[in-house]
Amino acid sequence: MAPQTKRYLNEIVAAQIVGLSPRTLQRMRHEGWGIPYCRMGLRRIVYDADEIEKWATGRTFRHRAAELAKQVAA
To answer: At 64, which CATH number?
Structure first.
């Protein structure tokens, strides 16, 4: 079995996957929240595909009450 390799996505592709604009991802990074990212150089930002999935899963709710309950607990 081949070893699992990490899949890194650029900002544009990551934004398309989650349905946000690249500028929104930039703002989220600047404000210190959002999808975890990796800096591969001075200007190169990439996102781990697994981290995108974890981030989205952590924001998935069956109903509004469950979302509100998580906000109160935090």
So the answer is: 1.10.10
Within-domain flag for 2: no
How many whole angstroms from its chain centre is CA 1?
29
Partners of 8 in beta bridges: 48
Q: Which residue has the tokens 């929104």?
A: 24
Q: What is the pLDDT of residues 40-70, one digit of tens each?
A: 999 999 999 999 999 998 888 888 888 888 7
Domain count, the chain: 1
Q: Where are the alpha helices (DSSP H) in the chain?
A: 11-18, 22-31, 49-57, 64-73
Range of the domain at 69: 8-73
pLDDT at res. 6: 81
The more confidently predicted of residues 7 and 2 is 7
Q: Find out whether 35 and 28 touch, Cβ atoms under 8 Å.
A: yes
